[in-house]
C-alpha cells in the first residue's frame, strides 16, 4: 500500500492554485508572528534627538521589552519608551531615563539632582557633561507615576519642560534593552 501512496504523491500534477495558497499561508503566518512580536513582546523605536546622548545617539534604533513591567515595576535608572504626556493623541513616543519613582521628591539645584531630601546628589555616571545650573525646581512624583529626564540634560526636552511633568505607569511602553542600529550595544 505504501508504494501506491508514494506513486500517487509523485504523480500529482503541479497546481498554481495550490502553490499560491501555500505562499499565502506562509505570508499570513509571518504577518501574524510579526504583529504579535511588535505589539505584545518588543517595541522598536528610532531616537530622533540628542536628548539621551551619549547613551543613545541621534538616529539610533532601539529595541525594548514590552514584557519587562508586566511582572515588576519600573526602576530608577531604567531607560524606557513611553507615550509623551503632553500629546493628547498618545502617538508621540519618547525615550528617557526614570529618575523619580512614585512618592519620590526630586529637587534640582546647582545643576544636580537630589532625591527625597538627600544632601548627596544622585550619582549619574551616564551624563555626558555636568548639567548647567538653572532655576531651582522641586517635584513630588504622584503614585503610579514616574519622573523622566534625558541623559543629555543641557539639551533635553524632558519633564522639567513639560506641562504634564509625570508619566503614568500605564503609559510606559517598554524598557529599552539594546541599540541595534548603527551597531549593537546594550543600554544601561
TrEMBL record:
Enzyme Commission number? 3.4.21.89
Q: Where are the annotated coiled coils located?
A: none
- Top-level taxon: Bacteria
Residue ranges constituting the Peptidase S26 domain according to the UniProt record:
21-181
Q: How does it sit in the membrane?
A: Single-pass type II membrane protein
Location within or outside the cell:
Cell membrane; Membrane
Quote the catalytic activity from the record.
Cleavage of hydrophobic, N-terminal signal or leader sequences from secreted and periplasmic proteins
The answer to whether UniProt assigns keyword Protease to this entry is yes
Residues spanning the membrane: 20-42
The cross-references to InterPro entries, in alphabetical order and at most eight, read: LexA/Signal_pep-like_sf, Pept_S26A_signal_pept_1, Pept_S26A_signal_pept_1_Lys-AS, Peptidase_S26
SUPFAM superfamilies in alphabetical order: LexA/Signal peptidase
Q: Which UniProt keywords apply?
A: Hydrolase, Membrane, Protease, Transmembrane, Transmembrane helix
The molecular function terms in GO held by this entry are: signal peptidase activity
Q: Which PROSITE patterns match?
A: SPASE_I_2 (PS00760)
Q: Does the keyword Phosphoprotein apply?
A: no
Q: In which family does this protein belong, per the annotation?
A: Belongs to the peptidase S26 family.
Annotated protein name in UniProt? Signal peptidase I
Protein's gene: lepB
Amino acid at each position: 500500500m505504501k508504494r501506491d501512496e508514494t506513486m500517487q504523491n509523485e504523480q500529482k500534477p503541479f497546481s498554481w492554485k495550490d502553490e499560491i495558497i501555500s505562499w499565502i499561508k506562509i505570508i499570513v503566518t509571518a504577518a501574524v508572528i510579526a504583529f504579535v512580536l511588535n505589539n505584545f513582546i518588543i517595541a522598536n523605536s528610532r531616537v530622533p534627538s540628542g536628548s539621551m546622548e551619549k547613551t543613545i545617539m541621534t538616529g539610533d534604533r532601539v529595541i525594548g521589552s514590552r514584557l519587562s513591567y508586566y511582572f515588576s515595576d519600573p526602576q530608577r535608572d531604567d531607560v524606557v519608551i513611553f507615550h509623551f504626556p503632553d500629546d493628547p493623541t498618545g502617538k508621540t513616543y519618547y525615550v528617557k531615563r526614570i529618575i523619580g519613582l512614585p512618592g519620590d521628591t526630586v529637587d534640582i539645584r546647582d545643576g544636580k539632582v537630589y532625591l527625597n531630601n538627600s544632601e548627596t546628589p544622585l550619582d549619574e555616571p551616564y551624563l555626558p557633561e555636568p548639567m548647567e545650573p538653572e532655576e531651582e525646581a522641586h517635584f513630588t512624583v504622584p503614585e503610579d507615576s514616574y519622573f523622566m529626564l534625558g541623559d543629555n540634560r543641557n539639551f533635553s526636552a524632558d519633564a522639567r519642560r513639560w506641562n504634564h511633568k509625570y508619566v503614568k505607569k500605564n503609559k510606559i511602553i517598554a524598557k529599552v534593552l539594546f541599540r541595534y542600529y548603527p551597531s549593537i550595544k546594550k543600554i544601561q
